[in-house]
Amino acid sequence: MLLNRAQPLWLVCVSAVLLSGLGIARAEEKPCTTHADGNYYDLSRLKLASNDYEFKSYGGKDYILNVCRPVRQEVWAPKVDKPEDVAGFTHRSHGDFSLGDVNTTVVVHGGHPLIYMTDGTRCPNAGDMTASTVIRFVCDASAGTGKPQLIATLPPDEEQACSFFVEWRSEIACPTAEGSLFGTIVSVLAIIVAVLFALYIVGGTLYNRYVLELQGMDQIPRFSFFSFSDTVEFVRECMERVRDKSSDAWQSRNWGTQDWGRGGSWSSSGRQGYSGLHASAEEAQTMLSGPPGFLDEQDEEDEEAPVPPAHPENGRAPGMDANGVIRL
After folding, report:
1. Is this prediction's pTM over 0.85?
2. What is the per-residue pLDDT across 259-296, written as a single tens digit (0 to 9) for each?
3. Directed axis angle between helix 228-259 and helix 266-273, to 10°?
4. Cβ(148)–Cβ(130) under 8 Å?
5. Which contacts qualify for 227-233: CB closer than 8 Å, 24 or more apart?
6. Are 134 and 99 spatial neighbours (Cβ–Cβ below 8 Å)?
């Protein structure tokens, strides 16, 4: 009775866990991608470039930037806690000035994807404030990969600037179809399998311990899978069976076509079965009559056969009366 009552509870728990797993898989966005207003944006292709993206400001200063990954070039004295995470910088007199660290989170405002980079180099004459950068991506199907462009800085003096505003027109900023659907399905199935496996281990252990009263390693559920050799043998047997059945069906179809497919008569079957023998009428008559001289020998045997003597009635010899006496 207790087990019967527990079954609905188990079903509810399993359903809740599976639904939560699907929700987690859907809620977690891949790096540099996002969903917004029914659209899907994928900026991860920008990080596949072999070199960093370089551009000049309106004042002629050089800037080096990368997206969703650190810059490839070596940064000199950026004065940050993690120089390996610098995603953009510019050259200044006392060393390279970091524009901000790597960020793979994409947000959408006004239909445009944005990436915020923070924790750059400490701003001049601003206490503990650090540099930050906003990259605004604009969908432009004719721009190809495109190139970043510095729009404004705060303060306006680039040597004292601490906040940077960059615009990037690119076809990659346009909404696109969500790819790797197969990978998403596999991930969801993997989560489901992992949850079911965990429930099996926990539930089986509790059942073995409190219902079957097992102890030690015996209370852990045991299971087995087909070995590789068994699997190969099973596949081989299946292929042999399919091949044998196909061969039998083919032979049956061939015999039916040859014997009964053309008219369905014995004579048709005979012509198909002995199509290699082309005999004339005389040869056929000779084969039916037997070997040469067979009929003549048969007639001679019939003529030479002795005629049995005629016996009188009651089996008595000639000249013998009823009493068995021979009279001359």
Report:
1. no
2. 444 444 444 444 444 444 445 556 555 555 555 555 55
3. 110
4. no
5. none
6. no
